[in-house]
Amino acid sequence: MEPLIALFIILVIFAIVIVGMGLRIVRPYEKGLIEFLGRYERTVDSGLRWVMPFVKRIIKVDMREQVVDVPPQEVITKDNVVVTVDAVIYFEATDPVKLKYNVANFVLAVTKLAQTNLRNVVGDLQLDEALTSREVINAKLREILDDATDKWGTRVVRVEIQRIEPPPDVTDAMHRQMKAERERRAVVTEAEGQKRSAILKAEGVKQARILEAEGQAEAIKRVADADKYQKLTVAEGEGQAIERVFAAIHTGDPTPDLITIRYLDALTQMADGKATKIFLPVETSGILGSLGAIKEMWNEEASAE
Q1: What's the whole-number mean pLDDT along residues 204-215?
Q2: Is residue 58 a contact partner of residue 24, using CB atoms and an 8 Å limit?
């Protein structure tokens, strides 16, 4: 009886060991490939899985995005300049079966493939183009690698060029060129500023002179208008006085003013440039007084206007 109990215990322990050896845990970011006697059987998702020991085995494949660092390498550009280029590749698995069985060492394979195509892409560019066209290089290299790695069950997400480093002498020449270009731009900017300042100053002087001339012309015009108005006012006053005189003559009611004017006309006719004597009437004082009265009357009328 005791041997049977011992055998039973041995079988139970053996069963527990077998069950324990067959338990496998597949993480959420992994896929499990089950092989039966060395042949692919099926793919399982994440979780607790059991496979028969010694007959089956489970291979875990990481489905997360991975990074491959491409070592620095020397590349000759189209204008025969040797530059050092390195890059990084981001990829993710799309088919765990192809990734496991179609390529032995994916990281090594994609690294060598990236180095080869990096030489081709950069070699078709001038140095200046290579330094300023990293986005173009990244896009071309990603497209090439994505097509080549499709049969390996992966997808190249992106490719980033970390650095493109020319030789030290070329770098020094580029620094000198950049410095000279910046100095040239500074000189041009300063010259343009001085030119603009001179133009603005000349325009300001021109505008000031124009305004000054316009002011002087306006002042002269106003003085001329005032003088003209004054002369017109005096002429109108004299005209009104003459009209009054002639009106008095025609009505037959002479005033002292009219008599004075008639005396002056008579004296003019008597002198007429040929006489050697001048006759003054007895009413000379009255005539002079009438002349003063006529002048005052004209002045008053002009002031009233």
Answers
A1: 85
A2: yes
